[in-house]
Amino acid sequence: MNEDEMRKRLEVLRIEHRDLDAAIDALTAAGSIDQLQIARLKKRKLKLKDQMALIEDYLIPDIIA
Q1: 63 has a pLDDT exceeding 80
Q2: Which CA distances in Å does 54 have to 1, 6, 22, 28, 61?
Q3: Residue 40 CA, distance from chain mean position
Q4: How far is residue 16's CA from residue 8's CA, in Å, rounded to a whole number?
């Protein structure tokens, strides 16, 4: 996967992360009693965050001062 593909993948992950956040907020605001579904969405959101961090770490090199 080259750098451009990684940047595109990162953007897709960010969009999905925002969508999951909105879905969790909507379910919570609606008073959903399906805590299992909310927990699954939160777990998926955390996985996306980990994937985004890996890609960002690769794209942004460490600078030693």
Answers
A1: no
A2: 13, 10, 23, 29, 12
A3: 13
A4: 13
| CB-based contacts of 21, cutoff 8 Å, min separation 6 | 45
d(CA 38, CA 9): 25
The reported pTM is: 0.84
Instruction: Answer for the pair 54, 10: CB distance below 8 angstroms, yes or no.
Output: no
Q: For residue range 21-57, what is the model confidence (pLDDT) as tens digits?
A: 999 999 999 887 889 999 999 999 999 999 999 999 9
User: Torsion-angle region of residue 31: left (phi > 0), alpha (psi -120 to 50) or beta?
Assistant: left
What length does the chain have?
A: 65
